[in-house]
Amino acid sequence: MPLPNFRDAESGEEAGGRMSFFEHLAELRTRLIHACGAIAIGAFIGVYVSKYVLEFVARPMKVALSNAHLDDRLIYTHPAGNLNLIITLGLYIGVVIASPYVLYQVWLFIAPGLYKNERKAIAGFIAPAFLLFLTGIAFAYYIVLPYLFKFLVSFQTSDTFRPMISVNEYFDLVSDVLLGVGLVFELPVLVFLLSAFGIVTPQFLWKNFRYAILIIGVVAAVITPTPDATTMLIFMAPMILLYAVGIGVSWFVVRRKRRSELARQDA
Can you tell me whether residue 75 is helix, strand or coil? Predict the structure, then answer.
């Protein structure tokens, strides 16, 4: 099915707007089929490599247990527990592998209805958003998880009780932490969008900095899986830094908007 042309740069006419409702549905169906196919292929690959990725995911817990001179083997309590985990992890890996192609299909669907400057704006923050999310996951894996598991294992006070970590529950905890921190690292992108729509300004963000610290503290307390203050501070530190980065992003966006408005007035 041929794709609709983009809006004409001179007339500003939207070619996508001339498509009928059923043509839009057909286009959406095509994009969904392509995206689902890519996820299926990625999941097939993910299931194949998941047993190797499991070793990588389990490493922070195994290191914490080994350092505490404890058995570092993780267990599963259901006959199909390990198989279910491999399939679940394979699906996650498949989504990650297919995500660039899925985003490309989303882009093909929405781009014809956008002006040229709108397409540039959206394309400009997709890559930073993806990189920030990956940075958040790396920060969680290499910094948050090792300290978190070291703290939890430190409560082993005697030989009477021995930890037997379920691999399924461990994977759920790791997934929550990685996803939570990855989303937190999207804060500059959120500030970018709010500033682009005129909802916030750098002056507003700076004036309410202390309230932002309070909100960050509450969010850190909610997403921190342990009650100790040090882990909470580890979560808060990058959030505060990202908020400061967000102020700079907002200043850049507002300044660029003002320059564009002045240029249009002079023209």
Answer: strand
* Structure token pair of residue 151: 């703290």
Residue count (the chain): 267
Cα separation of 96 and 102, whole Å?
Answer: 10
Burial-class residue 186 by CB neighbours within 10 Å (0-12, 13-18, 19+).
middle
First to last CA, the chain: 41
Euclidean distance between CA atoms 234 and 90, whole angstroms: 30
Q: How far is 174 from 168, CA to CA, in rounded Å?
A: 10
CB atoms within 10 A of CB 204: 13
Does pTM top 0.85 for this prediction?
no
Q: What percent of the chain has pLDDT over 70?
A: 84
pLDDT at residue 60, rounded to an integer:
92
152-176 pLDDT per residue, tens? 887 765 666 778 888 888 988 898 8
Distance CA 191, CA 197 (A): 10
**In sequence order, what are the beta bridge partners of 11?**
none
Q: What are the distances in angstroms from CA 250 to CA 193, 195, 213, 232? A: 9, 6, 18, 27
Angle at 255 between CA 251 and CA 257, to 5 degrees: 120
3-state secondary structure of 166: strand
23/6 Cα distance (integer angstroms): 16
Domain ranges of the chain: 1-159, 186-267
* Residue pointed to by tokens 């309590």: 77
Q: Looking at the predicted structure, is the pLDDT value of residue 3 above 50?
A: no
What is the distance between the alpha carbons of residues 199 and 28, in angstroms, rounded to a whole number? 31
Query: Looking at 8-12, 17-21, 74-78, 150-154, which range is the least confident one?
Result: 8-12
Residue 211: partners with Cβ closer than 8 Å, 6 or more residues away: none
